[in-house]
Amino acid sequence: MLIEVQKDVLMRSLQHVIKAVALNGPAPILQGIHIQAASDRVIFTASNTSMTIQSEIQQSSATLNIKRKGTIVIPSRYFFEVIRKLRDGVIVLELETEEKLMLTIRSGHSNIRLCGMAPTEFPYIKREEEERYSNRLQLNHTLFKATIKQVAVMAATSENRPVLTGVSFECNDNHINIMATDGVRLASRTLHIASSSHTNFKVIVPAKNLLELAKLLGDEYKAIEMAICNNRVKFIANGLKVESALIEGTFPSINNVVPRSYLCEILVDRECFLAAVDCVTVLAGDYIIRLAAESAQLKLLSRTREIGDVEHAVPLLEMRGEQFSISVNGKFLSDMLRNRECTSIRIRYAGQTSPIVILPNDSLKSTFFLLTPVRTQYEYNKSK
């Protein structure tokens, strides 16, 4: 293997794949980066078995010149740091022989040699295996990235119920529903597929892998392809490929969870409401805050006996139905309100024991959030 590549292009690929390196993994080879120089591209791959990230650099006179093909796995920690500290310009990567497993890195007056590993056991994405992927569909990059940021954070972090650590994808012909819940809060968004794919599937993807994918998707990507094969899912965008394991199990149904009728519905400014939630949560014991809807305002209250209490009022833009008060987890509520692009939020109250429904006012049909109320041991003085 002998290639010449611009440092900025090389670093971009390494920054992508290094997120999948298994730094504390039991297999030393998973702590490395697989480098494959083909006739027309160089492919960098890292894997922690749950997620595999692959980034390609196409041959170009301006950024990449492939003089000799070859393959090696190189320790990620040292390789990444060495490349990062080299000066800008052309970097030469040379593998003298496949048997020697030594990679020479040259840049300017610098000459570095790193011991490599045999690539035979590395789980990189083989091109011949990509044909097995069926159920392919195209998604708008901007909407998909925003949806993952909104939905995946609602997944559980505890492994007690593995299916709740994932995000459910349910595709039916021309739309796909993306949903996550930890048992207390729930987020759901439906994305339209431009051309009917006549594809139907249900899969659960680890939320942590999707959040890493969202970080990788820069503004240069226009569309993203999703493909399913047995127990794996793959996302493709230009030269970036992210493959993830799927979670086995059945995602809980929400048919009996979403309230069918409401006692009250209010509309508030999103930014004003978020600022109030963050303010009152500061003094909230166990993050528990109380929402009290009156005729013209929504009061937010919290109290910790040893510290003090706080009250914040948010003007109502609309109110239909009876007054109500309910206790919720302020941190969870704040997470739901962030990363929203809407200007106002609609809140629906269905009773003391029913979850409140939160909807971005410009997307009533495609996006909604549920938050289960918290039972408190005391009631706030309503005159406060």
From TrEMBL:
Q: Does the keyword Metal-binding apply?
A: no
Query: What are the subcellular locations of this protein?
Result: Cytoplasm
Q: Give yes or no: UniProt keyword Nucleotidyltransferase.
A: yes
* Gene3D superfamilies referenced in this protein's UniProt entry, alphabetically: 3.70.10.10, DNA Polymerase III, subunit A, domain 2
Molecular function, one GO term: DNA-directed DNA polymerase activity
Give the DNA polymerase III beta sliding clamp C-terminal domain ranges. 256-362
The UniProt keyword set, sorted, is: Cytoplasm, DNA replication, DNA-binding, DNA-directed DNA polymerase, Nucleotidyltransferase, Transferase
Boundaries of every DNA polymerase III beta sliding clamp central domain copy: 138-252
Alphabetized CDD domains for the sequence = beta_clamp (cd00140)
Q: Which domain of life is it from?
A: Bacteria
What sequence ranges are listed for the domain DNA polymerase III beta sliding clamp N-terminal? Answer: 1-125
- The protein's predominant localisation is cytoplasm
The job of this chain, per UniProt, is described as: Confers DNA tethering and processivity to DNA polymerases and other proteins. Acts as a clamp, forming a ring around DNA (a reaction catalyzed by the clamp-loading complex) which diffuses in an ATP-independent manner freely and bidirectionally along dsDNA. Initially characterized for its ability to contact the catalytic subunit of DNA polymerase III (Pol III), a complex, multichain enzyme responsible for most of the replicative synthesis in bacteria; Pol III exhibits 3'-5' exonuclease proofreading activity.
PANTHER family, per database record: BETA SLIDING CLAMP, DNA POLYMERASE III SUBUNIT BETA
According to the record's subunit comment, the protein's assembly and interactions are: Forms a ring-shaped head-to-tail homodimer around DNA.
Name the family the entry cites.
Belongs to the beta sliding clamp family.
Could you tell me what this protein is called? Beta sliding clamp
The record lists the organism as Paenibacillus septentrionalis
- Phylogenetic classification of the source organism: Bacteria, Bacillati, Bacillota, Bacilli, Bacillales
Gene field:
dnaN
